[in-house]
Design brief:
Length: about 270
């Protein structure tokens, strides 16, 4: 008599367990409810469908909507398509470049009817300063907006050629534009007359003074090399070559010079 009762109880327990498992697999139990509670909450966000360079007019075809975690929304995000597109005063433009999939932020788009002026690219509390360059001092035209550079000053001390020195006066500054080109997506070499860099107010003062003292040259940095290097002044003596030395006589100043393979001594340069 006891065996049938025990068997019946065991069967009832197994049946109840099976029903519990089936119930939860169908999403009706606490496990499924917990999963629903833990699911991330998302919000619709406008992102760039493609890379957008500085100055690009924002068009409907450049926008797509994606779901973004609600607790990780960027600050100053553009809330709606109507807010992003053309308004009563004209179109909006890109004032800081976007990569595909990047959310549209108010800080990176202009107001309605905006223009791609360079001042929009200058970081807060920084300054834009233009440096005169040529095909040599401008890295043979391979310098482009968004590159990082060092600025070198070459000058004569006491007005004597043999005392010419070169100093690195500023390291790791960003290039905002080359002549009138400010597009960060530009990839073609440009032989320019000016390079506009982003510097602090103090660095702008140094550059203004340095341009009056000698010749400025630009040195292109590796894009991943952001550390300041230890540098020292380089003088003519560091080159390891002979330099003309003036010979002072009563009737003028002479120097010893070499023309090709012929050495000409005591050529007068000043009475």
């Amino acid at each position: 008599m006891r065996r049938p009762i025990i068997s019946l109880l065991i069967g009832a327990v197994l049946a109840a367990g099976a029903l519990f498992i089936v119930y939860n697999m169908r999403g009706g139990g606490r496990i499924a409810q917990a999963a629903v509670v833990d699911a991330p909450v998302t919000a619709a966000v406008l992102v760039a469908k493609q890379d957008l360079p500085f100055g690009e007019v924002i068009k409907p075809d450049f926008i797509k909507v994606v779901q973004w975690p609600a607790d990780a929304l960027p600050e100053n995000i553009v809330a709606s398509r109507n807010e992003l597109l053309e308004g009563p005063e004209g179109e909006r433009i890109v004032i800081r470049s976007f990569v595909a999939g990047e959310p549209f932020l108010r800080s990176k788009v202009s107001g309605y009817g905006g223009k791609p002026v360079l001042s929009r690219k200058v970081t807060e509390n920084m300054r834009a300063f233009s440096i005169r360059i040529n095909d040599v001092s401008g890295v043979a035209g391979f310098l482009l907006p968004s590159d990082r550079i060092d600025v070198l000053l070459t000058r004569e001390l006491n007005g004597r050629p043999e005392n010419t020195v070169t100093d690195v006066i500023i390291q790791n500054v960003g290039v905002l534009g080359i002549d009138q080109l400010a597009n960060e997506e530009a990839d073609q070499p440009v032989v320019a007359k000016t390079a506009t860099v982003e510097v602090t107010p103090e660095q702008a003062q140094k550059l203004a003074l340095a341009q009056q003292l000698g010749t400025l040259s630009l040195s292109l940095r590796n894009f991943a090399d952001l550390e300041a290097a230890e540098v020292k002044r380089v003088s003519v003596s560091d080159l390891g070559i002979d330099t003309p030395r003036p010979v002072i006589r009563n009737n003028g100043i002479y120097v010893r010079v070499r023309k090709g393979a012929d050495k000409v001594e005591n050529e007068r340069v000043r009475q």
